STAT2 protein
Amino acid sequence: LEDLQDAFDFCYKVHYQPGDERNGDPEYLQELQALQAKLQNLDRQRREVLAQMQQLLGRSETLQELLQQELGAWRVRQQHLCLGGPGDTNLRPLETWFTELGQGLFQLRQLLRALGDLRQKVTYARDPLVAETPLLEQRLQEQLTHLLKSAFVVEQQPSTPNAGKRPLVLRTASKFSARARLLVRLHDRNHHMEAKIHIDRFRRFNILTSSSKTLLAGDSPQEGLVCDFQYLVGTGWGPGAAAGPGPGGDRGATSSQGPLVVTEELHLITFTLAYAYCGLELELETTTLPFVIISNNNQFSSAWASILWFNMLSSDPK
């Protein structure tokens, strides 16, 4: 396209002479016909490139729908695994597929920018780049945004080192860990992407250690982009929790249905990530499965019952 455009632009500047003085010159008319043919060829090639991009975006939408189904199935397997059932939660295949689709979309984004530069140099009446490029850019932006937001997942749900098959029940003053992963393994090494966590729900739960970390590639390229919070420690309940012991232990904050027993309180950790790559900046967010925080072992059975009930009745952590 650039070569065709440069050839047309050169011939236009050399041969085209507006005015009536040469309209009867057969040689000049022949030059105009050749110039018109170059413009028609340039226009046809531009339209073909745009049509190919439309086709590729259609294919990527179909592929992305399949990836969302695969990701949904992975979430179900992870949920079952957290409840003690069998399941393969290896993220490597999903990470490969998400990354390759992301690469393709970012390449299309670069091509659209290049087309925009060509349009700035040469344009004409009914130029397809003027009419169609903005719509393609919008469609591509929507696809990239959807892909990246769904690609930020919790790879390791909150658990203590000796949780065994009973994660999601944590104890105050005990270390626990959680890890999020970005399945689109594309990042700018000159830009540090920071991931932050916060725990929300009825209680104010304080965390020792830092609540933010830089998203890092693993020791090898195959390890992906992860933010690993390995030494989180809950120091207990902060202000805002309703005091007073209950039948099964502590009582928690008051909800619309009245005071909740601690073992019935479900909490979430939310990861947020300031993503930036090739000029695209997004705020990504993902949440853990709900978990319960207890202060002594006799609360464990009731807490695990709350975890089981929620996961059997709902697939949406929020």
Q: What stands out?
A: The longest strand covers residues 225-237. The mean pLDDT is 83.
